[in-house]
Amino acid sequence: MAIISILKYGEPLLLEKSHPVEKIDEEVRRLIDDMVETMYASEGVGLAAPQVGKLKRIIAVDISAGEHPEELIVLINPDIKTEEGSVITEEGCLSFPDLTLEIERPRYVKVKGLSPEGKELELEAEGLLACALSHEIDHLNGVLIINRASPLKRDLMMRKIRKKMRAGEW
Ligand code: NI
User: 130-143 b/e with 16+ CB inside 10 Å = b?
Assistant: First the structure.
């Protein structure tokens, strides 16, 4: 296993659409292990493969940030089947270090996908887990928090990012 560096906003790859995984082979399994290790090392609650430079439809989510490893969810080719309600929360993203944005997300989602063993999974989630799944699946479609924010909040965040870039902190 290895910790991979996480791409930050500004990397064009983050805006691309990821490709479905056709076969769960050794390479995919290794990528999943590395993603999980990288997510925990970064104290994140979720990570999508494009954030580590791989345009594959794979996400990892653990809203306990590693405190309860049984809460780890890894989904291959995840797809939101149903979503209901809406909730606004302050969200972070490992590709936007130290920044947060208010984002509107569904309150409830039903998601289908494959486990790392290739088993079909269907899970229902509410609250923080629903937000995290929606956030990570967005990454697979090249959608970032900044694309979901209001124009005002987006401008504010862009100013903060440009300041960090000038200071060499991005
Ligand atoms: Ni993110």
Answer: bbbbbbbbbbbebb
